[in-house]
Amino acid sequence: RIIDQRGRQARPALSAARRDAVRLARQISGLSSTVARLETIEEEADEQRDNDLRDAAARLIQHAGALTQDVTSLQERARLLQDELNAILSLETNDRLYALTVTTMLLLPATFVTGYFGMNTKNLLFAEDDNGTLYATILCVLASATALFLMRRWGLAGAPESEDHRPAAPERRDDRPADRSF
After folding, report:
1. Is residue 85 part of a domain?
2. Kind and range of the H or E element at 121?
3. pTM for the full predicted model
4. CA angle 145, 119, 146 (to 5 degrees)
């Protein structure tokens, strides 16, 4: 779901999942070390002690090891998802900056023309003509069209390619079913 959600909406869910994974890793690590100490004490104790306690300690160590592996896997998946989310946000930012750049480049010639005709000087082009405003408007449109033509010719204008070339989602490394809790 994180990759399907675009951008900033997925960040809080991923951050909470990463915090939970770190908390679980700490708790399981403490459990593992406690059970390992219990097994060490049991090995040093009298051989006639109850074997059930020793078997229970061995099972707990095995379960703690499996839990540690699962939490480590979850942490790795969360890290990969964070990287994917950062890549998506970077692409979104680049797309917006690209659109802003193209818009600026298209409006710059028109801004120059309107600034030129806005000066109060004698003998301005089209100043004495009845259709001077129309001619200035046509000149602005032609300047913007020329800028667009040149930008396309130089490969600077057109649709940004990032929409079609988004990075693929991280591949799963284990055979367990996907956890959809994120």
Report:
1. yes
2. none
3. 0.48
4. 10
Q: Is 21 exposed, middle or buried (0-12, 13-18, 19+ CB in 10 A)?
A: buried
Token pair for residue 91? 């692409």
Kindly list the distances between the CA atom of residue 103 and the CA atoms of 45, 80, 107, 145, 151, in Å, as whole numbers in the listed order: 79, 35, 6, 12, 11
Sequence-ordered alpha helix ranges (H) in the chain: 11-44, 51-117, 132-153
What Rg value do the Cα atoms of the chain yield, rounded? 33
The answer to whether residue 31 is domain-embedded is yes
Q: Tell me 120's DSSP state.
A: -
Expressed as residue numbers, the domain containing 52 is 7-163
- Evaluate whether residue 42 is within a structural domain: yes
Q: Domain count for the chain, please give it.
A: 1
Q: Has residue 122 been placed in a domain?
A: yes
For tokens 């675009």, the residue is 6
What are the tens digits of pLDDT across the range 56-106?
777 887 888 888 888 888 888 888 888 888 888 888 889 889 888 888 888
